[in-house]
């Protein structure tokens, strides 16, 4: 290990600070990009003709990771998002092998050496996201970085290493391969060593509010809902002045979704390509751009949708499902969903008179813009009952109260909850499909039950939120895994038993008994 690291440092000749910029392909479109670094801090901007994303990490051992999306909404990143961003950026900028980085931030494991090079396993100290770094056998510079992301693996490939005027090495060509398709490319056209004039502030999270999201506080906060025989909550937004049918109100969706049929009816402009993670894996989709979206008092200007098929997800709706309302509608507002989903209300972030500080507020954590909370459960042993685990909150997932992904089933020993193999009840849970009908497939699950599931934080009265007789699915194949930190998801059926208030601006969520 020590020999490999020393060779990597000598090969990198990394400057304390510097910048790289160039052209490439991002989300299926030609793009320009820029990255600046100084010690452990970095900031990167990628811009194509339609969308711009900025991400970074502030200085110091407690420097926060952050991202600013295409709408100008900036947020703190945590868990998988922060870890994956940091590992990839430090590899690209050469900080990964510096003495300070190895001693302060990284856990490294030597995996072996062969004709292809040296392989190292890396993760942040106290982190869960792992990456395998391959160093070229001849140059000792990074050749490949494979990072565990959203239950899959993203692979960075570094080619055509060159040196700047100060002797620091940089990859003139970098490619990012998504496991199930999609390639982002970055070509360096300029490089500079030395500190920027902006100082450390350039690496800090922006604090501006997006101008594309507004909530009219002078009108009723109530959003009319549409009934379905499944546990889903359906709403009918007005997009480009038209109502094209019901959309699933889905806290487990990282953005907005529209079906090909609805997009055609609305005349939404198509562009780019993205691979979206669903319960059964990633599917390829294209983007669609609208003029505006209105949902009760909320208005989104120039909304961006991912186009994908949603057949078979909702049962008992009187009209075909036209799409999904996800994170973009919640990120700068307070969302309240009543017991059974019969009443949905949206408030501006500063309308705090409509919430009660005495409720049992839970810390809300976001991974890929999807909410997660901590809970204990009866499970199979005392550790499950006393040590909190992280669950995704997915109001768009039906068929059970709770679903554990297969990795958690194995690691937590949850197969003890199942009966003998001959008596086990199995079912397949279907995911979304791509814009052209590509299916993410279905995941095999086994049904069981748990006595209880309890959220971590108590209310002002000292009582915790507790659910009894929890209908549970245990996955036996890939799917349902968005985070290396989570064990599964809490689904629509369980969520529908209480009023739930999502306060994303303050990163908290309340479950309010009837």
UniProtKB/TrEMBL annotation:
**InterPro entries annotated for this entry?**
Peptidase_aspartic_dom_sf, Retropepsin-like_bacterial
Under Gene3D superfamilies, the record lists: Acid Proteases (2.40.70.10)
Q: Which CDD domains match?
A: retropepsin_like_bacteria
Stored SUPFAM superfamilies: Acid proteases
The molecule here is called Peptidase A2 domain-containing protein
Q: Which organism is it from?
A: Ostreococcus mediterraneus
């Amino acid at each position: 290990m020590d020999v490999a690291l020393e060779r990597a440092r000598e090969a990198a000749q990394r400057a304390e600070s510097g910048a790289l910029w160039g052209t490439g392909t991002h989300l299926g479109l030609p793009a320009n990009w820029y990255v600046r670094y100084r010690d452990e801090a970095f900031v990167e901007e990628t811009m194509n003709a339609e969308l711009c994303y900025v991400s970074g990490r502030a200085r110091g051992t407690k420097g926060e990771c952050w991202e600013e999306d295409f709408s100008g909404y900036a947020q703190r990143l945590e868990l998988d998002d922060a870890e994956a961003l940091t590992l990839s950026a430090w590899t690209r900028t050469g900080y990964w092998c510096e003495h300070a980085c190895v001693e302060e931030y990284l856990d490294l494991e030597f995996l072996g050496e062969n004709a292809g090079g040296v392989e190292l396993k890396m993760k942040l100290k106290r982190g869960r996201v792992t990456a395998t770094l391959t160093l070229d056998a001849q140059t000792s510079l990074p050749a490949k970085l494979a990072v565990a992301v959203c239950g899959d693996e993203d692979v960075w490939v570094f080619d055509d290493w060159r040196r700047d005027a100060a002797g620091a090495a940089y990859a003139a060509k970098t490619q990012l391969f998504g496991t199930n398709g999609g390639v982002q490319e970055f070509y360096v056209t300029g490089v500079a060593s030395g500190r920027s004039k902006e100082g450390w502030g350039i690496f800090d999270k922006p604090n501006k509010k997006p101008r594309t999201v507004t909530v009219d506080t002078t009108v009723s906060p109530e959003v009319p809902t549409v009934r379905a025989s499944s546990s889903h909550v359906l709403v009918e937004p007005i997009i480009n002045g038209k109502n094209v049918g019901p959309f699933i109100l889905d806290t487990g969706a990282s953005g907005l979704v529209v079906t090909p049929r609805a997009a055609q009816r609305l005349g939404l402009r198509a562009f780019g390509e993205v691979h979206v993670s669903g319960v059964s894996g990633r599917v390829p989709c294209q983007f669609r751009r609208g003029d505006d979206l209105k949902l009760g008092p909320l208005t989104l200007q120039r909304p961006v949708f991912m186009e994908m098929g949603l057949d078979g997800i909702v049962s008992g709706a009187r009209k075909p499902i036209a799409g999904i309302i996800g994170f973009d509608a919640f990120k700068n507002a307070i969302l309240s969903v009543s017991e059974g989903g019969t009443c949905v209300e949206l408030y501006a972030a500063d309308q705090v008179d409509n919430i009660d500080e005495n409720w049992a507020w839970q810390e809300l954590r976001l991974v890929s813009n999807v909410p997660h909370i901590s809970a204990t459960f009866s499970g199979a042993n005392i550790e499950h009952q006393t040590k909190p685990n992280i669950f995704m909150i997915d109001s768009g997932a039906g068929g059970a109260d709770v679903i554990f992904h297969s990795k958690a089933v194995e690691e937590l020993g949850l197969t003890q909850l199942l009966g003998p193999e001959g008596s086990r009840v199995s079912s397949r849970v279907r995911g979304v499909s791509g814009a052209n009908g590509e299916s993410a497939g279905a995941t095999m699950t086994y049904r069981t039950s748990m006595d209880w599931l309890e959220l971590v934080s108590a209310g002002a009265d000292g009582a915790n939120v507790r659910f009894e007789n929890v209908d549970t699915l245990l996955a036996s194949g890939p799917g349902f895994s968005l985070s290396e930190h989570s064990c599964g998801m809490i689904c629509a059926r369980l969520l529908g038993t209480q009023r739930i208030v999502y306060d994303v601006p303050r990163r908290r969520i309340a479950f309010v008994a009837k």
